[in-house]
Sequence to fold (423 residues):
Amino acid sequence: MKILLLGSGGREHAFAWKISQSPLCKKLFIAPGNAGTKQCGENIDLSPNDFESLADFALKEHIEMIMVGPEEPLVRGIWDYFNKNKNLNHIKIIGPSAEGAKLEGSKAYAKAFMAENKIPTAAYQEFTKATLAAGLAYLNDQPTPIVLKADGLAAGKGVLILEDREVAKAELENMLNGKFGAASERVVVEQFLSGIEFSVFVLTDGMHYQILPVAKDYKRIGEGDTGLNTGGMGAVSPVPFVDETLMQKVETQIIRPTIQGLKNRNITYKGFIFIGLIKVGDDPFVIEYNCRMGDPETEVVLPRLKNDLLELLDSLYKTDLNIKAIEQDERFATTVMLVSGGYPEAYEKNKKMSGFNIIKNSILFHAGTKEEGENILTNGGRVCALTSFGDSIEEALQHSNANAEVIQFEGKNYRRDIGLDLI
Fold:
């Protein structure tokens, strides 16, 4: 099978690493890829959002499957673009239709979907510029902290958690007046839930589903979960507090109603659902849906998955997903993300990297990297991830942290405490 993988981050390197191991993989292309994905297939200089160029390439190279890594092509309707063209609709797109991608692309849509299907989530109201006065009045009655969410995609920056009601009012007005561009033309005001977060990943053909290894990520830049939010500083899998009882609740109260809700709306969905959850007391609540895998969670989930990933993806179009069994490595996996100095604020690129050839006991996944001649340079805020196994979180983390010291580039920063709060 000839595969085209879209994206350029650590998630995509993890996908490329896993897909390239499959006997079913005849040829793997990555658009645009990074310095690491090049080791698993052939990078091509195409944007994941340029559907016309992707279609031309797919036809020329006889691509049979397109694995969509990031959310934006899905929200923009890549599935619909290919499916509605008779010359392209034979290509298997891994990801939902544009309607299904609204679960991530619109917070208000996702909230309405959850309410309709009685899926536990925080109470909310939504407001636009036309209803700003009502929104300000609503905030007067809300306990703090107050959660404000831009309705659309805002590059991970559209969620504010505010302790001061007057600040929340000012921020609501700022958001509705374009703070996050079109993404905040509608704002969801949400009840704050106090608990501990974790991530569940579901692979579905829209009728059946399989649950992949559970993970927990760490978003704040500083150790002890301090400082600014980032795209993710690391992840761990499995998650010790997510026991069989809690997962049974997740499956019956959240996963099954989600799949049934997709069926009820006649939504085509052949891909991943990332469910961001919070455990409040003994019960799970949905924080958000994503219509693709997360990053850096993918870097711990896929290494623990023993199945042939390409076989699983192909089963989405063969309607035999329900007879598959997910096999997973029982050991702990930890991912530590190396980031550029200054990240998540202003940071420099093009820093020469070294140490790759002396890594031991870890899998290296490139994220923001590029090749220039014989050198590998930094090319983003999150530069690379180191995933390691161990019989305990401590052992796995020890391997990742040791190799984080081996990789060298100017301004390197990373957290040394990934997963230690779970021990």
Notes: Residues 123-190 form a domain with the Dna Ligase; domain 1 fold (CATH 3.30.1490.20). The chain has a mean pLDDT of 96.
